[in-house]
């Protein structure tokens, strides 16, 4: 399985984010991930411009799924799980900021439909 991580390479530019998704989708990857850091990450002045609206992330999710490509999110916030579950995200990656968050890990293991996880340390 080949997973392409857009991460934050979109630099907060929604058009660039979708260009990544379109290009990667055309290359035959099996899955694409986006990083969705905690809000505190964006409070740092050097990071505030990297934030994508949730609508853009969900548009990317629906676009990839329309081509049969899996979509995952890299998260560090347990509060995002319910929304992504409602949109049937295919897999999760835990950001390094969430690696020691037992609540996050337990929620992913016990209360998500998909059981594919990546831990980043």
The gist of it:
The protein is built from five helices and five strands; from the N terminus they run E-H-E-H-H-E-H-E-H-E.
The computed structural class is alpha/beta
Mean pLDDT: 89
Number of helices: 5
Distance between the termini: 21 Å
How do the SSEs run, as a string of H and E? EHEHHEHEHE
Low-confidence sequence ranges: none
| Residues in helix, % | 25-40%
Shape: globular
Rg value? 14 Å
Please explain how this structure is put together:
With about 120 residues, the protein is α/β, with parallel strands linked by helices. It has a domain of about 70 residues. Helix content is about 40%, strand content about 20%. It has a 5-stranded parallel beta sheet with strand order 1-2-3-4-5. Strand 4, helix 5 and strand 5 form a beta-alpha-beta unit. The protein starts with a strand and ends with a strand.
List the main descriptive attributes of the protein structure presented here:
121 residues; 39% helix; alpha/beta; 5 helices; 5-stranded parallel beta sheet; single chain
């Amino acid at each position: 399985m080949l997973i392409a991580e857009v991460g934050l390479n979109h630099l907060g530019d929604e058009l660039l984010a979708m260009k990544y998704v379109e290009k990667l989708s055309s290359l035959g990857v099996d899955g694409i991930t986006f990083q969705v850091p905690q809000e505190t990450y964006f409070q740092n002045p050097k990071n505030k411009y990297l934030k994508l609206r949730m609508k853009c992330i969900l548009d990317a999710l629906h676009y990839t799924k329309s081509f049969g490509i899996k979509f995952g999110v890299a998260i560090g916030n347990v509060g995002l799980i319910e929304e992504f579950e409602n949109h049937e995200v295919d897999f999760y990656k835990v950001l390094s900021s969430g690696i020691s968050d037992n609540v996050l890990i337990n929620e992913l293991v016990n209360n998500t439909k998909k059981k594919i996880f990546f831990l980043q340390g």
